[in-house]
């Protein structure tokens, strides 16, 4: 009986177990596969994961905050995306070996409407989530399918990076083939991706980010990785100006669907997963 889980610290709030269980149920695999949550403290993470991989009851795990860098470090092999990003959100266990992947990158591309990559895009932030977004947008790749099983191709984009701490933004941009900008002109971008934590604790995004509520327009796509039960203030403002908006829950669904595909080889139902994360 293959088990799956999300590992985080804390992890009790995670929507992944409900979402992935809904996907497994829809695939008819829920009798055979399970998906739970494991809270591993950072000091125990490496030993606990090694034990999971060795004992053979788990097929793989999703990895969330704060373990994504440690997950890459302990893997026996890693995808190009995970290595370039420097973090893994998906581990697969095969005969005691651990393979690392990063589906946050592909998940972003699949969450975007067709036509929103391939031009000049802006990423706000320079942490782990930003690295996955920058790498994905720089490379392009599989987008959401127009028809089931027929993914579109998202072309590579020119990526500008803004970060509160400019020096960190410059370092990440140089490493990933992007360009650091200090004062972005919003009209230049077809896509704006907020990877910063701004908005998570109710902060007013326009006090902290180089954006104004009036800077958005109908030709733009705005992604905010922050999510809760209500739309984020950033997405509310962007939608109010006619922009197409993509929220963090859609990103969660898309990265989870790609992880489940790695483990089961099946294409899960995005609709079932969306319904589960949004209750
Ligand atoms: P993650 O791995 O989730 O991306 P992280 O590495 O802690 O998390 O990065 C958080 C990002 O949010 C950083 O880009 C951070 O900017 P700094 O590099 O300047 O710290 C950004 N961030 C957090 N709080 C912010 C705020 N109040 N205003 C602007 N940016 C903020």
Description of the molecule:
The protein is of the alpha/beta class and 279 residues long. Helix content is 37%, strand content 24%. The protein is built from eleven helices and 14 strands. The chain has a six-stranded mixed beta sheet with strand order 2-1-3-5-6-4, sandwiched between helices. It has a six-stranded parallel beta sheet with strand order 11-10-7-12-13-14, sandwiched between helices. Strand 5 and strand 6 (97-101) form a beta hairpin. 48% of the residues are buried. The mean pLDDT is 95. Bound molecules: 2'-monophosphoadenosine-5'-diphosphate (ATR). The site of 2'-monophosphoadenosine-5'-diphosphate (ATR) has 15 residues, from helix 6. The site of 2'-monophosphoadenosine-5'-diphosphate has 15 residues, from helix 6.
SS-derived structural category:
alpha/beta
Helix content: 25-40%
The end-to-end span amounts to 27 Å
The rounded Rg comes to 18 Å
- The fraction of residues assigned to DSSP E strands is 15-25%
Total number of beta strands:
14
- Topology as a string of helices (H) and strands (E): EHEHEHEHEEHEHEEEHEEHEHEHH
Unreliable sequence segments:
none
How is the biggest beta sheet arranged? Answer: 6 strands, mixed
- Taking all residues together, what is the mean pLDDT? 95
Any chance you could write out the topology, listing elements then pairs?
Layout: E1 3-8, H1 16-26, E2 34-39, H2 45-55, E3 58-63, H3 68-74, E4 77-78, H4 80-85, E5 90-94, E6 97-101, H5 103-111, E7 120-124, H6 128-139, E8 141-147, E9 150-154, E10 158-162, H7 166-176, E11 179-180, E12 191-194, H8 205-208, E13 221-224, H9 233-240, E14 244-247, H10 248-264, H11 270-277
Parallel strand pairs: 1-2, 1-3, 4-6, 7-10, 7-12, 10-11, 12-13, 13-14
Antiparallel strand pairs: 3-5, 5-6, 8-9
Helix pairs in contact: 1-10, 1-11, 5-6, 5-10, 10-11
2'-monophosphoadenosine-5'-diphosphate is lined by residues 125-130, 163-165, 168, 195-198, 208.
